[in-house]
Design a protein that fits this description.
D-Maltodextrin-Binding Protein, domain 2, DNA binding, transcription regulation, DNA-binding, transcription, LysR family transcriptional regulator
Length: 289
């Protein structure tokens, strides 16, 4: 199976129409139809249910779409990382991506410790909007990432756990709920004047809802200060809450696991060194006997 065929198939699957997919790919419709038919013959199964209104995926097609996207992303990531290595004369910096405004203290400690290691390479830090870190790691724009479960998609990555912590809700300091000793998630979701911000989906889109779209944590905290929303964050965010905000523990929110993540096929010595440093610094404490 060729990458070209996978790109053809993905375009048809996403457009649900051969004509629209051909326009998107900049090619004529007949050769695209032949390529899809040849792919189905090679696999030995129909990938689409065809109708006058368009094309829908079969169960085999759903599987190939998921696996095909991963395969194409891996090829594109390999090309990006290779180009970076060539441009840097074979000693490319490690690109670390993290959410803007999140894990600041942990990241600073990690970078300082790694810089002191023999053979450490330069680390370029890319701070981006929530939901972008896993995408950047998959498509090769980043080599390693700080991700947070259950918010980020960790599928397909190797990971080491750096921290596990409870969640809290951040509200305006003057709000009546700021005086509560703890809240439940049901209570937080039902606050009429403080809607929760909306996190991005895996494709970067946002669900409909009353809360602001979460693009930058600092910006959202300013909206909380203004009394426009509340936000649920890991407990470590308490240190950076600042004036005008109150932090209330959540009694039933799932715990957040912060991990360092990297592609399983990575051969970068810089990534390996950064991961080793992170594992040494933030190794989980042994369970109490």
């Amino acid at each position: 199976m060729e990458i070209r065929e996978l790109r053809y198939f993905i375009a048809v699957a996403e457009e649900a129409h051969v004509g629209r997919a051909a326009q998107r790919l900049g090619m004529a419709q007949p050769p695209l139809s032949r390529a899809i038919a040849q792919l189905e013959r090679r696999i030995g199964a129909e990938l689409f249910v065809r109708s006058p209104r368009g094309m829908t995926l079969t169960s085999a097609g759903e599987t190939l779409l998921q696996e095909g996207r991963a395969a194409v992303a891996a090829v594109e990531a390999a090309e990006r990382r290779t180009r970076r290595a060539v441009q840097a004369g074979g000693r490319a910096p490690v690109v670390l991506t993290a959410k803007a405004g999140a894990s600041g203290g942990l990241m600073a400690e990690l970078l300082e410790a790694y810089a002191a290691e023999p053979g450490a390479v330069e680390v370029d830090v890319v701070l981006s909007a929530p939901g972008h870190q896993a995408l950047m790691l998959r498509d090769g724009r980043a080599d390693v990432a700080l991700l947070h479960e259950p918010f980020d998609d960790l599928r397909g990555f190797d990971t080491d756990t750096l921290r596990v912590e409870d969640q809290v809700v951040v509200v305006p300091a003057a709000h009546p709920l700021s005086r509560e000793s703890s809240l439940t998630m049901a209570q937080v979701r039902s606050i009429p004047d403080l809607p929760l911000p909306r996190w991005p989906e895996l494709d970067g889109s946002y669900r409909d809802g009353p809360g602001p779209e979460l693009r930058d944590l600092t910006q959202v905290l300013q909206l909380v200060r203004l009394g426009r929303c509340a936000i649920v964050l890991p407990e470590s965010s308490r240190a950076g809450a600042g004036d005008g905000l109150a932090v209330v523990p959540l009694a039933d929110a799932p715990r957040v696991r912060t991990v360092i993540a990297w592609p399983p096929h990575s051969t970068s010595p810089g990534v390996a060194g950064l991961v080793r440093t992170a594992s040494r610094l933030f190794a989980p404490l042994p369970a109490a006997r």
